[in-house]
Amino acid sequence: MTITAWAADAWALAAADGRTLLGLAGPPGAGKSTLARALVAEVRRQHGAGSAAYLPLDGFHLSNAQLERLGLTDRKGSAPSFDVWGYADLLRRVTQERGRDVYVPDYDRTLHEPVAARHLVPPSARLVVTEGNYLACDEPGWRDARRYLAEVWYLETPDELRQDRLLERQMTGGRDAAAARAWVQGNDGPNGEQVKASRRQCDRILATVGLDMPNGRY
């Protein structure tokens, strides 16, 4: 399969007179944000600039101050370190509010903090692609978010490739090699195993090996 084919399948889900949300799930480093952006770009190329929009779960990371308050500083990226209820509420708004712009937060890997209103869902968007680790997890909050998604697709990427990407991400973010390895093994690893357990609850499995995706954030 190619990005063009997957984008066509995503667009086929979109309601002619409504708005459809498609979720991409997968463990850390699987390529979710890269694929989501590529799908949105391809749908826009085929159907117009306002036809699709991007909505990342990463915008609902808790701030570093809140993580410290909760004792989750060393578990940033784990399921409890997200404002899942805020995410579910935004999905509801995007589903129901079709007559106005809806602003979408993101996560800034330079600031290491969430930032408000980086992305936009315009009234014309018929397809919204959202992505995040835990979209298919059968747990409180995540179940509430899932009900707004027409389908959830799971990205299957070899662990070795994911680990290389995650190490690169941590070192680019300022950690030395030893600290990056410790973070990936002690945090990203357990998070990834939790996400893998949700694979069976996804509607479709996408194998990314050999897929030529543009450079992105993985």
Shape: globular
Strand elements, count: 7
So how many helices?
A: 7
CA-based gyration radius: 17 Å
Rounded average pLDDT = 95
Note poorly predicted spans. Answer: none
- Strand order in the largest sheet: 2-5-1-6-7
- Distance linking N and C termini: 19 Å
What class do helices, strands and sheet pairing give? alpha/beta
**Percentage of residues in DSSP E strands:** 15-25%
Main sheet properties? 5 strands, parallel
Helix-strand topology string: HEHEHHEEEHEHHE
Query: What percent of the residues sit in helical stretches (DSSP H or I)?
Result: 25-40%
Give me the secondary-structure topology.
Blueprint: H1 3-13, E1 20-25, H2 32-47, E2 52-56, H3 64-70, H4 84-96, E3 102-108, E4 113-121, E5 127-131, H5 142-146, E6 151-156, H6 159-172, H7 177-196, E7 204-207
Helix pairs in contact: 1-2, 6-7
